[in-house]
Amino acid sequence: MMCFVIMFMDDTDKELTYDHLASGLKLALEKDKTALDADRLQNYTGPQLRQLLNWPRPLPIEEERVRLLHEVGMELERSFGGEAANLVKSAGNSAATLIELITRHFPGFRDHSLYKGHQVFLYKRAQIFVADLWGAFKGQNYGEFHDINSITIFADYIVPAVLRELGILKYGSNLSCSIDSNSEIVPGSEEEVEIRACSVYAVEKMRELINKKFGKQLLSIDIDLWLWSCGVQNMALSHHRTLSIYY
Q1: Which end of the chain is more exposed for a tag (fewer CB within 10 A), N or C?
Q2: Name one GO molecular function term (predicted).
């Protein structure tokens, strides 16, 4: 059994955390192993999703979450025999191929924006699906990818906040004021794309520097985990706020 679901984060409900969503899904599967089967995903309603996650009130952008669950369930059934495992097998142990398959078949994972006439592809949730498989299976079986080093960091809002705190990212005065005053940054705006894309670029430069100075080959996944862990331990960090399905 392998789960391929939509579990994206935003912070419009301060009490709804990643850990709450993850523990809710884990508990749901422990109670009912078919809870996330493709045919079930196609039929969830908002109240049923809340019950699944053991959440007492409407979720942020709940209708969109439900729509994306339906999308995943229908496409898994139509193209992969209702099994996420078949999706993974069809990638032939290639992380890049699996990301391409995910973004081709599931529009809700097409995390890209137009920036000054150029299309920028970030694919945060498609990449984190691959990384989670790699981590959960310890690089074996469904988690074996010969090109796992092609995965970048998972650009959302926590990692940029840590990079800013470390002085690696520096924002202009207007953007700094917007973030520090908790103003919303429009999804797909130049500011949002710059924050996320510059975070990816900064970590790739960190990888190069670590390799050059210490001779140590790190994966972007490793650096992302360290930065993300620092961020969740210091939730007082100011971070950009964007209501998006791609985080």
Answers
A1: N
A2: hydrolase activity
Question: What is the C-alpha separation between 206 and 168, in angstroms, rounded?
Answer: 10
How far apart CA 39 and CA 82 sit, in angstroms, is 7
The two structure tokens encoding residue 41: 């995903």
Tell me how far apart the alpha carbons of residues 93 and 134 are, in angstroms, rounded to a whole number: 10
For residues 176 and 191, give the distance between their C-alpha atoms in angstroms, rounded to a whole number: 11
Sign of CA dihedral 98, 100, 105, 110: positive
Report field, pTM of the whole predicted structure over 0.85: yes
| Active-site amino acid positions | 156
How far out from the chain centre does Cα 102 lie? Answer: 13
Q: Beta partners for 112?
A: 121
Please give the residue that has the higher pLDDT: either 54 or 138: 138
Cβ-Cβ contacts under 8 Å for 38 (sequence gap 6 or more): 72, 73, 74, 76, 77, 82, 83
Contacts of 221 (CB under 8 A, 6+ apart): 131, 134, 135, 148, 151, 153
Residues in the chain: 247
